[in-house]
Amino acid sequence: MDECGIVQDLLPLYYDDACTPASRELVQHHLSTCENCKKTYEELKNTTVDRIMKKESTG
């Protein structure tokens, strides 16, 4: 598996602050150099925020 694949697998854990310090460092470094993975992470964050907002407005 290439680095992008590894990082994309780690993104949900990274977002939830549930990955190891070494994994967090890997993801942070990779996101600073890879626009594709950075975009994927931004989409993950936006999707998560949208879900929370919908839940709060309907719940």
Automatic annotation (TrEMBL):
Domain of life of the organism encoding this protein: Bacteria
Fetch the Pfam families from UniProt: zf-HC2 (PF13490)
Fetch the InterPro entries from UniProt: Anti_sigma_zinc_sf, Znf_put
Q: Which residues form the Putative zinc-finger domain?
A: 4-37
Task: Return the similarity comment.
Answer: Belongs to the zinc-associated anti-sigma factor (ZAS) superfamily. Anti-sigma-W factor family.
Q: What is this protein called?
A: Anti-sigma-W factor RsiW
